[in-house]
Each structure stands twice: as structure tokens, then as C-alpha cells.
Design brief:
Blueprint lengths: L11 H5 L2 H7 L13 E5 L11 H19 L3 E5 L1 E2 L3 H13 L5 H4 L1 H26 L9 E2 L3 H16 L3 E11 L4 E3 L4 E17 L5 E6 L10 E4 L13 E3 L6 E6 L12 E3 L5 H10 L25 H15 L2 E14 L7 E10 L2 H10 L7 E3 L2 H11 L4 E2 L1 E2 L9 E3 L5 E3 L10 E2 L3 E2 L1 H5 L2 H4 L9 H6 L2 E7 L3 H16 L4 E7 L2 E2 L16 H8 L1 H10 L7 E2 L2 H24 L5 H12 L6 H22 L3 H28 L4 H22 L4 H8 L24 H23 L8 E6 L3 H6 L1 H8 L1 E7 L8 E6 L2 E6 L6 H26 L2 H6 L2 H30 L1
Helix pairs in contact: 10-15, 11-15, 16-17, 17-18, 18-21, 18-22, 19-22, 20-21, 20-22, 20-24, 21-22, 22-23, 24-26, 27-29
Length: 881
């Protein structure tokens, strides 16, 4: 193929092969380094190194790549910094599972050798992820790639930990936390997913010490009675006043515990008697703190019963439940079992039921950090959420946040920078203490602790003189799903405010979740997951990116559909075929020739009304697309582009140019070729941020371009091309042609059969000037265009903006049917009038809308009224005859 040839059919595999590597070799993704350009930066939401990319991450990266590609083309000094997250729990679990296939436990290897295996895993999957990024076409600067366990990021983590500790905002203590018995680690509140499951209320009796009286309690977790240290009643409950101060005997284990009063006991709920298990229930923990009760942990790290469980020691917690229930039944102290559907916490990472458990952990005190984040949202430095409603989501969480448990009982991660010696002393510092006898805390930090520093730690912080930190921080925009506002977005905001004094980013664009065609969340259990790489293999990355950018509005979920993927591929193929046609007819047109021709068209010294029309429409499209992109309304921008490319450019302008291209005037052909090339060039540039691969492929084949489209200038509005008269005239021409086609279809008269046509219009001079187009597309046997003419009695008619159309089709029409058709049209215009009148009758709309918007509605009102009156008059004429 020559430079200007394209294959007859779009083949994404051929177009995308090797393209990404060429971009990397050309270094087109790196910042421009232009000190006069406004910086625009994004740090990629780091995928964890547990496996392949999923559709949600493909959505993140697509939207961010659209933003950064457009800003790059607009002349910003753009930085898109890539990186990956170590994902402590998930990655350690994956590696442990792989080792288990060979019969190896992590404990068999020890910490250091196990970590060697995890680093091998990281290298393997990081390579896979980067390959998948390449297939997606994301334009990141790999020279700045980071990983959350890099030494630079690790230094930032240690500095943050130590500073918060020295302020008293990080502390170590024994508190009730969420425990994952499978991963054998603490979890934060937001790592617990609450799911509805089938359970039961077990009604058990406890005997009053020294009497034959019993009290009845109800619990969904009977095994926890092994850790009971009191029962409580409400002091106002007359039923139990005589028991306050006495003791009950725990069944089976026969431990004696007191009966106390506390407002936590609800007289209206159940029996009014509540068992208190402080080491395994958050509410009970608070009761125990108020009454200084002992706290008995009755469970091992793996969810088995410990030495405090008597004869149940060593049993799994759920097996112990079964045996305890059986033993209580045998003792006659199991009163009833009532089925219940209730919410139970599950580990977000391993899926097992979480156990509330008393444990010594490290915590971040959140009150001051949260207060700062809340206050910041009322300042000029506030983070802007798109859609704005997610600011409320963020604020509500910050206003109700609890202290954050940050220690994890893992090996993979940032080891806590605290050391202990045999004297019971503790040292916290960025480096190990001097001298011997110190042992570092074995726990690691929650993955989100390091991820919270991502926007500034990746820029070189804590070195605030780092060139990247000074140039690109705060970052411009973050794109992420609404499901991690609490996990990640909130933590980045309060940590950045605390350590840099600035918000980490200016904008946060929130998208939803990708669901299957039935609206269900994608999951392994349902088997409805979609691998984006499989989609790319079939349709190409451009088609997937088009679907992901056009699927929904910000904050909304989107349903994946192969029908939509087919539509995306068809759209690309349409542009491909349009490009082939243009390239075949304009392969030798130089850049100078295009520039000269466009100047002549703008000055109206050459070219025709359709050329001026398409350039006006291109201006309007570039303006509207840019406005919507700036608002992150990619779906709206895509809709505007689609309509312009498919309808106005391909279906109308290309067809209208054939009147010139098949004619004899070579000078006029040269003008048309230049306009075709210019519009195609601009269309490719507008599309490039969304669909980078095939736009580059076509762009480099244009005869008047050079270099990569990645750094080509983004289209701007060129006022000299605006021609309202041409725009209105061709709009009337298109409406006329469409009306003729519709009438022919209604009376089953094919275009091949010539029929007479009359057009009555105040714009008769213009319509006569464009009559060759009317004749080409409507095939009249004779065409009459005049400002005033006799209306034939038996004729099909249509009213378009600025003209009345009549097709005398005597013998082919039924007058009654024509009247019925026109009455339907009259009803349509009445409906349009009602809608516009209602809008203009709304005082709030008229007062608050822009003047040009109000004027547009008034213009529509006048147009609809004229059409209504004309149709009404025509109906009257037909009825009189």
C-alpha cells in the first residue's frame, strides 16, 4: 500500500499492532517541558499486582487517557504518571495460594524467602499489567513509573508515620477490631462488606446463682458466651430490679458473672436481658469500658476456639457453635431457635465472615485529620467532585469516621517503623535505633496508608524541592469509581492536607460500576465477568474505549453489551470508509493548497454553500465537544461527535460533494478536496483522545500532515468559517430532500421514477441556486421554485423551515388520507408549540437562562408557529376542494 491507501475494511488487529511501541519510542507521552505551558497532571489509580486488569480499571484508564490526550493536544504541559499498588492482603493471599498448590506454607519459607516469592509474583504481574495498558493505549510516562514499595515511597510512608506518631495521632492500643480469620489480620471498617445471610436467634437461659430462677437471652452467635463477662438489664426494667447485683452462672463452663444495669439494654427488645462479650462485640466493648469489666478473648487468630473455651478448645468457631447448641439443648437451656435473615460482615479480600475481636493494634486518631478535610471543602482549595453529589458522600463519611486501624498481620507491605527491646521500651523512627537488642514490629501497614500518599509521594515528596512536586502537584484530576471514595479518595485528601497543606487534586471524576446486560454486578460467582483483553481481541481497543467513554453520565453505572460493541466497531468502520473515499480523491493535495482553499471559502471567493455549511458545523462541533469534555461529560461529547461525523459529514456533505466531484469544474473540485481533507483532519483530532489507534493510522496517511496526532493541535473554533446563512440554507436544503424522500416512501414511489415538484419559498433565489442538489437527490421530472405559485389541488405536501413543498401526484394519493396525514403533522407541531410556550412561560427559566438560550427558544416558537399555520391552511384548502 502507498501512504494514502487504507484497507477496504477496518481491521483493529492490524491497525493497533505495534502502534503503542512506536509512540513509546517517539517519547510523545512525556511532558513537553515547555515552561510557558500550563501544567496538567494525573496520577493513575494504581492497580494492584494480584492479576489482570478488569473492566472497571479499563474504565478508569480510558477516561484518564481521554483527558490527558486532549490536554496534551491543547498545548498543556501534561504528565500522566503510572504506577502500581502492592495490595498487601490480596497479593499475599494469592502467593500463598500458589505455594499451597506445591504443598508449601508461608511459614515453611519464613518471612524473607516468602517475600522473595512475592517480589517474583509482582514482577510477573506488573509486566502483564503494563502489556495490557499498552493494548488499552494509555499514554503514560513510563520514565516516572512508581510502585508503593519503592524506596522513595517507603521513605514517605515512614516520615508520615513518625510525624503522626509524634503528634499523638498514631497510637498503639488494645481495642475491638475487625478480624479476618483466613488472612489472620486486622481489617479497617471499610474493608468489611456487609452481606445478608440466613442465620438464627438462639434463645438460651442463664441460671441465677443460688436460686432456681433463670433469665433468658438471645444471640446469633452462641459460641461467644464463652467470653461473656456480664449480663445487663435496664435500670428502669421492673421485671429484673430484684436481680441487679446478683450473678448468673454461664452454662456448661459454669463461670459466674454479674448482673448489671446499663442503658444499652433495651426493655422493648427481646427479653430485655443482654449478654456482654466485650472481646467480641463492639457494643459490648463500650459497655465493658463503662463498667470496667474484664475482656476475655476466646478465639485464636485462625478462628478456632482458644484455651478460654474449655472443652471446645481447638474447634473451628462454627463447629464449636454446633456443639455448643447441642450441649445446651441436652442441658435443657436452649429454649428456642428462630431463623433470621441478617447482615453479617465479610472480609472484602478473602470473603470469610469477619470476627469482631479484641486485639492490640496500631491506630490513626482521625478527629483532627477529618476536621481539616471537612473545613477544606469550604475553601478555594476544595476538591471538586463530578457529579457534585459525591461531595456529600465524602463529607458524610468524614463526619462519622472512626479511628483507623492501620496495622496488618502480614509480611508483604511496609513494616511498621517501631522497635522494641527486652526492657519493654519502644522506639518509633524513620530508621532503626542505634545499638543492639532492638526488634522491629512484625506487622505491616494497611495498603491504603501508602496509597493515601500516592499523589505527592510519587512526585518526589518528602523532598519539596523535587522538580516534579513543584511543577505538577497538586494534580489536576483523579478518575475513579464511587466504590473507593472511602478507601482511597478520602484518605488522599486528609493526608495531603496534613503533609503538604494542599488538596491532592483539583477535580475528582467519579464513575459507576460496569454491570452485565441484565444490570447485575460482575462477579466470579455469577460467572458474568468480562475480560477487557478478550473484548480488545475481537473489537479493538478503540471500540472498547468508545463504549466506555459513551456508556453513561458521570457517577452512573453502565451495562456492558456486545450489541454496543458492534455499534462502536460499525462507527469506526464508517469513518474508515469515509477516509478511504477522501484519500482516493485527494491524495495529492498539499497543506498549502488546503490553507489557500480554506481562505478562499472563508472569504467567499471560492467554494459553494455546502463547503461553508460543513465548516460552520465543524466549528460548532469543536466548540460543543470541547465544552462537554471540560465538564467531563464524555458521553455527551461522543454523542455530538457521532451525529456530526455520521449524519452531517458522512451522510450529507460527502454525498453533496458528489455533485462537484462528478462535475467538470476542476477549480471547484480542488476546493472541495481541500475542505474534505480539512474536515477529516479535524474529525480525527477530535476523536483521537477517545480512539487513539485508528485515528493515528489515518492521520499519518493524510497527504498534508506530518508527525504524530498525539501531539497535533486540538481543533479550535475558527470564527472566519462561521456562516449562519449557509448553515440555515443547507439545513433547509436537507430538510427539503428528506421531506421528498419521506413523501415518496409514503406513496410507494421510488426515487428512480421522476415526479414533478413545486417549492414555494421566500428563499426562492437561494433554492434555485442549489437546485442541482435538489435535482440530484430528489429526481424531479420538472422543478418549479418560486416565491409565489399556484398550489395544485391533488398534491402531497410538506412544510419545512422556510419553504412549502408540493408533489402533484394525481392518481397516487387519496385526499382523505392526505388530510389525515397532515392532521397528524398538525398535532406534532401543536405539541412542539406547547412545549416551547411552557418553557417560555416559566419565569424562572426566562430570568436565569442565558440570553442566547432564551432567544433560541423564541426562534423555535416562530418556526413552529409558521409550520403549524401553513399545515392548518393546507388542510383547509384540501377540505374545501
Amino acid at each position: 500500500m502507498t501512504k494514502n491507501e487504507l484497507t477496504p475494511k477496518f481491521n483493529p488487529t492490524e491497525v493497533e499492532a505495534g502502534r503503542y511501541e512506536k509512540w513509546l519510542e517517539a517519547d510523545v507521552f512525556k511532558p513537553s517541558g515547555n515552561p510557558d505551558a500550563e501544567p496538567y497532571s494525573i496520577v493513575i489509580p494504581p492497580p494492584n499486582v494480584t492479576g489482570k486488569l478488569h473492566l472497571g480499571h479499563a474504565w478508569d484508564t480510558t477516561l484518564q487517557d481521554i483527558i490527558i490526550r486532549q490536554k496534551r493536544m491543547q498545548g498543556f504541559d501534561t504528565l500522566w504518571l503510572p504506577g502500581m499498588d502492592h495490595a498487601g492482603i490480596a497479593t499475599q493471599a494469592k502467593v500463598a495460594a500458589r505455594l499451597a498448590e506445591d504443598g508449601i506454607l508461608p511459614q515453611d519459607l519464613g518471612r524473607e524467602k516468602f517475600l522473595d516469592k512475592v517480589w517474583e509474583w509482582k514482577d510477573e504481574y506488573a509486566t502483564t499489567i503494563k502489556e495490557q495498558w499498552g493494548k488499552m493505549g494509555i499514554s503514560v510516562d513510563y520514565s516516572r513509573e512508581r510502585f508503593t514499595l519503592d524506596e522513595g515511597l517507603s521513605q514517605a510512608v515512614r516520615k508520615v508515620f513518625v510525624q503522626l506518631y509524634n503528634k499523638g495521632w498514631i497510637y498503639r492500643g488494645e481495642k475491638l477490631i475487625n478480624w479476618d480469620p483466613k488472612a489472620m489480620t486486622a481489617l479497617s471498617d471499610i474493608e468489611v462488606i456487609h452481606k445478608e445471610i440466613d442465620g438464627a436467634f438462639y434463645h438460651i437461659t442463664y441460671q441465677i446463682e443460688g436460686s432456681d430462677e433463670f433469665v433468658e437471652i438471645a444471640t446469633t452467635r452462641p459460641e461467644t458466651f464463652l467470653g461473656d463477662t456480664a449480663v445487663i438489664v435496664n435500670e428502669k426494667d421492673e421485671r429484673y430490679k430484684h436481680l441487679v447485683g446478683k450473678n448468673v452462672i454461664l452454662p456448661i463452663i459454669n463461670r459466674v458473672i454479674p448482673i448489671l444495669t446499663d442503658d444499652h439494654a433495651d426493655m422493648e427488645k427481646g427479653t430485655g436481658v443482654v449478654k456482654i462479650t466485650p472481646a467480641h462485640d463492639p457494643n459490648d466493648f463500650e459497655v465493658a469500658m463503662r463498667h470496667d469489666l474484664p475482656m476475655i478473648n476466646m478465639m485464636n487468630n485462625d478462628g478456632t476456639i482458644n484455651e478460654n473455651g474449655g472443652k471446645y478448645e481447638g474447634l473451628d468457631r462454627f463447629e464449636a457453635r454446633k456443639q455448643i447448641v447441642a450441649d445446651l439443648k441436652e442441658l435443657g437451656q436452649l429454649v428456642d431457635i428462630k431463623p433470621v435473615r441478617h447482615e453479617v460482615g465479610h472480609s472484602e479480600r478473602t470473603g470469610v465472615v469477619v470476627e469482631p475481636r479484641l486485639s492490640t493494634q496500631w491506630f490513626v486518631k482521625m478527629d483532627e485529620l477529618a476536621k481539616n478535610a471537612i473545613a477544606n471543602q469550604t475553601t478555594e482549595d476544595a476538591v471538586e467532585f463530578y457529579p457534585p453529589r459525591f461531595n456529600d458522600t465524602f463529607m458524610q463519611w468524614m463526619e462519622n469516621v472512626h479511628d483507623w486501624v492501620i496495622s496488618r498481620q502480614l509480611w508483604w507491605g511496609h513494616q511498621i517503623p517501631a522497635w522494641y527491646n527486652e526492657a519493654g521500651e519502644m522506639y518509633v523512627g524513620e530508621e532503626a535505633p542505634e545499638g543492639e537488642g532492638w526488634t522491629q514490629d512484625e506487622d505491616v501497614l494497611d495498603t491504603w496508608f501508602s496509597s493515601a500518599l500516592w499523589p505527592f509521594s510519587t512526585m518526589g515528596w518528602p523532598d519539596e524541592n523535587s522538580a516534579d512536586f513543584k511543577r505538577y502537584f497538586p494534580t489536576s484530576t483523579l478518575v475513579t469509581g464511587y466504590d473507593i471514595i472511602f478507601f482511597w479518595v478520602s484518605r488522599m485528601i486528609f493526608q495531603s492536607l496534613e503533609f503538604t497543606g494542599k488538596s491532592p487534586f483539583h477535580n475528582v471524576l467519579i464513575h459507576g460500576l460496569i454491570r452485565d446486560e441484565e444490570g447485575r454486578k460482575m462477579s466470579k460467582s455469577l460467572g458474568n465477568g468480562i475480560d477487557p483483553m478478550d473484548v480488545i481481541e475481537k473489537y479493538g481497543a478503540d471500540a472498547l474505549r468508545w463504549f466506555l467513554s459513551n456508556g453513561s453520565a458521570p457517577g452512573q453505572d453502565v451495562r456492558f453489551s456486545y450489541d454496543k460493541m458492534d455499534a462502536a466497531w460499525n462507527f469506526i468502520n464508517k469513518i474508515w470508509n469515509v477516509s478511504r473515499y477522501i484519500l482516493m480523491n485527494a491524495e495529492d493535495v498539499s497543506a498549502d493548497a488546503v490553507s489557500s482553499a480554506l481562505t478562499k471559502v472563508a472569504n467567499k471567493t471560492a467554494g459553494n454553500v455546502t463547503d461553508r455549511w460543513i465548516l460552520t458545523r465543524l466549528n460548532d462541533t469543536a466548540r460543543r465537544v470541547t465544552e462537554q469534555m471540560d465538564k467531563f461529560e464524555f458521553g455527551v461529547a461522543g454523542h455530538i461527535l457521532y451525529n456530526f461525523i455520521w449524519d452531517e459529514f458522512a451522510n450529507w456533505y460527502l454525498e453533496l460533494t458528489k455533485e462537484v466531484m462528478f462535475g467538470e469544474d476542476e477549480a471547484e473540485k480542488d476546493i472541495t478536496r481541500a475542505v474534505l481533507l480539512h474536515v477529516l483532519d479535524q474529525v480525527l483530532r477530535l476523536l483521537h483522545p477517545i480512539m487513539p489507534f485508528f485515528t493515528e493510522e489515518i492521520f499519518e496517511k493524510l497527504p498534508n500532515t506530518s508527525g504524530s496526532i498525539v501531539v497535533a493541535e486540538y481543533p479550535k473554533v475558527r470564527p472566519e468559517f462561521n456562516d449562519d446563512k449557509a448553515s440555515e440554507g443547507v439545513a433547509m436544503l436537507i430538510e427539503l430532500i428528506t421531506a421528498v424522500r419521506n413523501i415518496r416512501a409514503e406513496v410507494n414511489t421510488p426515487l428512480s421514477k421522476a415526479v414533478p415538484m413545486l417549492i414555494k419559498s421566500e428563499h426562492a433565489d437561494f433554492l434555485n441556486a442549489v437546485s442541482p442538489y435538489i435535482s440530484r437527490f430528489t429526481n424531479p421530472s420538472e422543478l418549479t421554485i418560486a416565491k409565489d405559485l399556484a398550489v395544485p389541488e391533488q398534491a402531497m405536501s410538506a412544510v419545512v423551515t422556510g419553504a412549502e413543498l408540493y408533489l402533484p401526484l394525481a392518481g397516487l394519493i387519496n385526499i382523505e388520507e392526505e388530510i389525515a396525514r397532515l392532521e397528524k403533522e398538525l398535532a406534532k407541531w401543536q405539541k412542539e408549540l406547547d412545549l416551547v410556550n411552557k418553557k417560555l412561560g416559566n419565569e424562572r427559566f426566562v430570568a436565569n437562562a442565558k440570553a442566547e438560550v432564551v432567544q433560541k427558544e423564541k426562534d423555535k416558537l416562530a418556526d413552529y408557529q409558521e409550520k403549524f399555520d401553513t399545515v392548518k391552511a393546507r388542510i383547509a384548502e384540501l377540505k374545501e376542494n
